[in-house]
Amino acid sequence: xxxxxxxxxxxxxxxxxxxxxxxxxxxxxxxxxxxxxxxxxxxxxxxxxxxxxxxxxxxxxxxxxxxxxxxxxxxxxxxxxxxxxxxxxxxxxxxxxxxxxxxxxxxxxxxxxxxxxxxxxxxxxxxxxxxxxxxxxxxxxxxxxxxxxxxxxxxxxxxxxxxxxxxxxxxxxxxxxxxxxxxxxxxxxxxxxxxxxxxxxxxxxxxxxxxxxxxxxxxxxxxxxxxxxxxxxxxxxxxxxxxxxxxxxxxxxxxxxxxxxxxxxxxxxxxxxxxxxxxxxxxxxxxxxxxxxxxxxxxxxxxxxxxxxxxxxxxxxxxxxxxxxxxxxxxxxxxxxxxxxxxxxxxxxxxxxxxxxxxxxxxxxxxxxxxxxxxxxxxxxxxxx
Length: 385
Prior knowledge:
This protein is α/β, with parallel strands linked by helices.
């Protein structure tokens, strides 16, 4: 006798977004309410991709009891789901064209063909234009699901062709309870991780389970608070870049090695054996992709540091306004209070403005070390260079 499918399957892993789940559940079960292009937006860690995959599973399955199909979709092995995710800086035109071509295929087994684009904000204008016609006039049984932090991250022409669904930002206490449940860490560790991650679920889970990551964050923030001059700024900027580089290498090294070994195994080359000239182009192409992924990983790591610094100086502003109850970095209360008393409010605001500018500059390929040195000179002097 077949098992009964849980009522919340495949939505069970979508946490803290009941309104969004209800909207998509209804759309999946009612063709009259289904738009053929969706944009799911929300802050990092809010569960955009998880929701997109659950929606895809519900769309492709024959009904709420078709558990086998839904599990296949969630595992990424069903022929009617195509996913584009990138570890690189941008999504390329070639990747977008391949998606558009795929979108015109009829579903082979399920009710719909679903195209999921994670990190749709990583498309430059020319790449976005490749998608326009496909989004405007998709085949009757194709559904596009784009994911991005906000609507503003996409071109107006893209936004006008999709139905937007904005996810809510979870509370710190809610994230802490989820992290404690998932990882089994102490409630106080989970609360601190959720607070320091600013409610980003994935980052909170990493902080909760990685003592070294928690220690690196604390050292970085304390180092920035001790910057007093240009020499300090240069030294601390170098330390931040070195730590982010080592972290990025640790995250990508194992995957890079596995990919290289898999490629060599596929073409029949034993470990340690010389690569024939005819196959070097394939190996070179893989190495190029891995370098692009490493660049993205490094930038993401530096951006995470800048996000932490924004939380630091946001706390200083809160103290300058006399608010002490909702600090992100409570553990540094004494140090932050000293800065709040020593600095005028406008100096703190200049630093926060420069932090936002630095994050934008890094997205425009500005050299990370120079950008951080300039930022930390502003921290030391209160004046933007």
